[in-house]
Amino acid sequence: MTQNGEESTSTRRPEITGLRLAEDAPEPADPPAPGPADLPQDRSQAILEATKQIGALLKRAGHPFALAGSVAVYAHGGSRYLQHDADFAILPDDAEAVAGALREAGLAVRTPPEDWLLKTTCHGQNVDIIFALAHQPVTEDMLDRAHVLPVDSVLMPVLCPTDLIRSLISAFSEHYCDFGSVLPVARAVREKVDWDVVRSTCGDQPMAAAFLFLLERLNVIDAQEGQP
Q: Which InterPro entries match (predicted)?
């Protein structure tokens, strides 16, 4: 038992030797200058780099394809703000051959539960290889209508604006109906779209019809003839 704050011999802490005084400690080195890997990544540019690499690979392999999704909108003059993935449309019969070409290039190919696409990763970005758009198989006619456009300096086929809009609004359903994400796309490409074709092919679908009505009320497109 101790008294007056004194420790007994049996409980006294051992002396610690070899401590360096604070004034003798070496000054910490300056932190290393940030390198490219330490800088914030431009997500949009990363998606574009992935798009260019996959597009170039498919071109070399000779597989018909067309760029789809948000990067296709960018190629047609839309926003460069890309925050999702890169999408490529291919023919259903080419899916196995395209998967083989990707694997030969050292890219892992994943088969998700959905039976209409394959997935891979390039430059850390997700890439979807799609062979059905809005539940309809990609066709040769659709790929033939694609426009060859520069995508950040690399030429590649891009879904024509009419097919691009049709694929987006035909995907609307009672479970997915995000008009807000497609509205800026429609605004960006409205002068390049054949809206009569869009109406004739998907205008009888309830969600698509509602979106077309919204575009008319917002004066994005002209009202259909015969309608107020």
A: NT_sf
Structural tokens at position 92: 């259903």
User: Which domains occur in the chain, in start order?
Assistant: 41-159 (3.30.460.40), 161-228 (no CATH)
Task: Judge if pTM exceeds 0.90.
Answer: no
Q: How far apart are CA 206 and CA 172, in angstroms?
A: 9
pLDDT, tens digit only, all 228 positions of the chain: 444 444 444 444 444 334 333 344 444 444 444 444 444 468 889 999 999 999 999 999 999 999 999 899 999 998 887 867 899 999 999 999 999 999 999 999 999 998 899 999 998 999 999 999 988 999 999 999 999 999 988 999 999 999 999 999 998 988 888 899 899 999 999 999 999 999 999 989 999 999 999 999 999 999 987 665
Torsion of CA 181, 119, 87, 155, to 10 degrees: 160
